[in-house]
Amino acid sequence: MTTPLIQERAEIVATLFALQQAFEELIVRGLESTGTDDTRRLATLGDELARAGAAYLAGLISALVHAIKERDDGAARALLRAQTAARVFERVLSLDAAAEAFGGGDPAGFAGGAGGKAPRGEAGPPERAGSAAAPPATTGTSAPDTALVPVLEELASLIEGVIGAGLTTATKATLEKLGASFKEASRLRLLRLATSLRYVTDECGRFLAESEHFSARRLAFFLNRTWLIARGLREAIDESNHAAISRLLLQSTPQPVKSVTAAVIGVQKRALLDGSAAFEFRMRTLGDAPGVPLGTRLVWSCVFGARKNVPAEAFLHLPQPQKFTPRTLLDGRRITIADAAITADGRLMLGPKSTVTAGAPFDRWSELVTWDTGRALERIATHAISPLDLEVELQEEIVVTDYELGAAAPNPFRAEQQVMPLCASGLELDAVVPDGPDGAELLAALADMRKSKKQPPLYGLVHYEMARLVFQPLTAITDKGTQHLMISSEKIDLAALMKTLDFTT
Fold first, then answer.
1. Could you count the other beta carbons within 10 Å of the beta carbon of residue 225?
2. In what order do the strands lie in the sheet with 255-271?
């Protein structure tokens, strides 16, 4: 791709980011409190996108500006539609940029400019609310009853009301309504909808508590996601569109597995300042099992509630219901899992009868940890872009060698992260490090690697965001085995830990 077009794409991304921030501010403050400066800012951003060839998105922004000026009752819905189209446009740009970086040419025919061809997805609307393509469900999905329609309509109206009034007018009653909707969605087994609602409720609660952890970005994204699913399900039910219902519910039945042996190659840690923590253990299978061939990627997650003044790694020493400690998975050994289940996307699920047993040391990491750009290109080419996409849903496991790692700097698109530019094999990646407690060990480890004369291969996850390749380093493959970069090597005093933890709360 030529330098002028790279620059033009960067300018479009900057405009999209500014638009995203404008939406977030409007949602927090409320459309009823907008003024001339707000509408002028939106109109300017719409004009910039129109000149870049994003005519459909620009038209929705224009409709939003008109609705705000006229104090139209449909202004909140107009914002959500514009936000949906902007989300689709960003995914198009990001996937095109990734395909080009991996040597896949120019799949969308991106040319930019008023006279050029716009990226795929800009020829028209992303269908209607919630109906954009999502991965189809596998088995176990049943069509919701028409009795759900009033519930979905009430929920969509509640979201539109929150956006219209803004969080500044939100009260405890608002939280109670959101909480009731979450419980109802959970009761009806609309789990995708319930998950989005939980995030909305959490962010509203943080805002009302004036918590430093409040994120307008998360709130805006999950408000939109909740609205899309609710509106989309309501329309699909009205039309008896079972295929759309299946896509929106995204349910699947885990497949039981009698026994599988795997090795853990990376661990992602999320530790919040409130003391809660979550870990994702990424594995590869070491042999064939019925329905689980050699090299299958598996992920097992564990989540721990808030415990003040307890290091996140301490939780890894606590026994699970299956009578093993997660810390065992970090020892570089063969792990045998029996009587478990695996979802269609590779999630490992343990039940009451499951067992997890550590075996002999594993030392063939260079054979196990590889990656294929062809697989990444195929996934990008066949992916049906949807406003419900999460950035990490198309993430790839990769290994980089012979790389150059730059100094850390603030991430221009994520205030809670730092970025270290990483160049390897002609790829330019943004190695990201969280600013919170879950990034301290990683930042120190990467800083040491910058000083080292011999840098070990780095294993991690790459996803596509704001037309950049975003890399999450997880593991250094050393002569001695794996070094899990996000996990502290400090020893845990188990006796002191057990005294600290209060299991009655």
1. 25
2. 297-304, 277-285, 255-271, 333-342, 348-361
Tokens 């969509």 belong to residue: 156
Domain map (residue ranges) of the chain: 3-101, 148-249, 255-363, 367-484
Strand boundaries in 187-317, DSSP class E: 255-271, 277-285, 297-304
CA distances from 486 to 278, 301, 320 (A): 12, 15, 21
For domain 367-484, give the fold: OB fold (Dihydrolipoamide Acetyltransferase, E2P) (2.40.50)
**Angle at CA of residue 381, ends 460 and 470, nearest 5°:** 25
Rounded distance between C-alpha atoms, residue 229 and residue 226, angstroms: 5
pLDDT-based confidence at 501, cuts 50/70/90?
Answer: low
Count Cβ atoms within 10 A of the Cβ of residue 111 and give its class: 0-12 exposed, 13-18 middle, 19 or more buried. middle
Q: Residue 181's CB: how many other CB atoms inside 10 A?
A: 23
Contact 216, 24 (CB under 8 A): yes
CB within 8 Å of 202: residues ≥ 6 apart: none
Q: What is the torsion angle, in degrees rounded to the nearest 10, for the CA atoms of residue 496, residue 500, residue 504 and residue 505?
A: -150
What letter would DSSP give residue 30?
-
Amino acid letter, 5? L
* 498 — pLDDT class (breaks 50, 70, 90): low
* Whole-angstrom distance, CA of residue 87 vs CA of residue 446: 32
Q: Alpha carbon of 261 to those of 197, 255, 290, 329, 371: distances in Å?
A: 36, 16, 12, 12, 20
- Show Cβ contacts of residue 4 under 8 Å, excluding neighbours closer than 6 positions: none
Angstrom distances, CA of residue 215 to CA of 27, 271, 319? 12, 16, 33
pLDDT digits (tens, 9 = 90+) for 308-363: 778 888 889 989 999 999 999 999 999 999 999 999 889 999 999 999 999 999 99
Alpha-carbon distances, residue 370 vs 281, 323, 345, 429 (angstroms)? 17, 32, 19, 17
Class of domain 255-363: mainly beta
Query: What pTM does this model have?
Result: 0.86
